[in-house]
């Protein structure tokens, strides 16, 4: 199946070539062929337009989300400490691109996971898939990340911090520690908060959770500026109907500490 973008590009090239020919060729040679010239312009444009519309309808029908969605989740990664100097920063977009990743699934130099479009399978946009689409990878034992200052870096459980102590990965979603985050599917909402706050620590002394005053600075900036923390977020989500999930499906359910998980549907 031809991608709509490809068809649009070829149609644009055809129209550009035809326009040049009409301008360059002696007017007397084509002025009696007005209907033909008009058809050569309009038919390819109509075909491309109808194809795009049909393709969009088809993609929506076969996709798990049944149409475009707009989901966000914020995240921060800290290496051997939690100061600003320990915080990883994904490489900046270059040229005319304003994103790292794909049109559907990307980051905008904002420490935010963006899902913007029609999703064929929900699993295709989980945290592990996000790391891969931005040029990295993640598992329960290691991760690779393309940092603006450090370059492409890989950290494995057991690697040493500057203090000589072996470090391990710790994954925290809304303050709760998870054993593995690669398959985690975040809260389906366009705003953060209420969208999830994901913290990844690589350190020699990992806390069991990020609750309490001593960890109050280890939180996503948009959560902090909105007055959210890891102890009041459930209450905040429940207090405002606008904070409810923006996507619902009988096959998926959001569970605190687990994310969106597949559920069995009784026939």
- Total number of strands: 12
Largest sheet: 7 strands, mixed
Helix content: 25-40%
Mean pLDDT: 88
What general form does the structure show?
A: elongated
- Structural class by secondary-structure content: alpha+beta
Helix and strand pattern: HHHEEEEHEEEEEEHHEE
Percentage of residues in strands: 15-25%
Count helical runs.
Answer: 6
The span between the termini is 34 Å
- Across the major sheet, the strand order is 2-3-4-1-10-8-9
Provide the low-confidence segments as ranges.
none
Number of domains as seen in the coordinates = 2
Radius of gyration: 24 Å
Summarize the structure.
Helix content is 27%, strand content 23%.
Which labels suit this protein?
267 residues; alpha+beta; 2 domains; 7-stranded mixed beta sheet; 3-stranded antiparallel beta sheet; 6 helices; elongated
Can you tell me about this structure?
This protein starts with a helix and ends in a 5-residue tail after the last strand. The chain is α+β, with helices and mostly antiparallel strands. A seven-stranded mixed sheet has the order 2-3-4-1-10-8-9, with no helix packed on it. It has six helices and twelve strands. Helix content is 27%, strand content 23%. The protein has two domains: 4-62; 73-262, no CATH class. The model has no long low-confidence stretch (mean pLDDT 88).
Tell me the layout of helices and strands.
Blueprint: H1 4-24, H2 27-30, H3 34-62, E1 68-79, E2 100-101, E3 105-107, E4 112-118, H4 127-133, E5 137-138, E6 142-147, E7 151-156, E8 168-173, E9 176-178, E10 197-203, H5 221-225, H6 233-239, E11 252-255, E12 259-262
Parallel strand pairs: 1-10
Antiparallel strand pairs: 1-4, 2-3, 3-4, 5-6, 6-7, 8-9, 8-10, 11-12
């Amino acid at each position: 199946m031809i991608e709509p973008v490809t068809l649009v590009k070829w149609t644009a090239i055809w129209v550009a070539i035809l326009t040049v020919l009409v301008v360059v060729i002696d007017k007397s040679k084509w002025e009696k062929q007005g209907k033909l010239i008009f058809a050569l312009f309009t038919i390819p444009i109509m075909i491309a337009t109808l194809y795009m519309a049909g393709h969009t309808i088809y993609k929506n029908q076969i996709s798990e989300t049944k149409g475009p969605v707009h989901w966000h989740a914020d995240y921060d990664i800290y290496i051997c400490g939690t100061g600003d100097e320990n915080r990883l920063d994904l490489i900046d977009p270059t040229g005319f691109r304003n994103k790292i990743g794909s049109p559907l699934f990307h980051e905008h130099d904002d420490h935010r996971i963006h899902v913007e479009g029609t999703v064929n399978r929900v699993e295709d946009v989980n945290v592990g898939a996000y790391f891969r689409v931005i040029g990295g990878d993640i598992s329960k034992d290691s991760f690779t990340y393309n940092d603006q200052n450090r370059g492409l870096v890989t950290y494995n459980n057991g690697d040493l911090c500057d203090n000589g102590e072996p470090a391990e990965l710790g994954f925290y979603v809304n303050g709760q520690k998870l054993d593995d985050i690669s398959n985690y599917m975040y809260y389906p909402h366009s705003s953060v908060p209420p969208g999830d706050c994901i913290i990844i620590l690589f350190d020699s002394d990992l806390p069991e959770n990020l609750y309490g005053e001593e960890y109050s600075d280890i939180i996503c900036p948009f959560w902090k500026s909105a007055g959210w923390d890891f102890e009041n977020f459930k209450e905040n989500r429940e207090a405002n109907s606008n904070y409810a999930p923006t996507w619902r499906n009988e096959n998926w359910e959001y569970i605190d500490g687990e994310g969106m998980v597949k559920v069995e549907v009784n026939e």
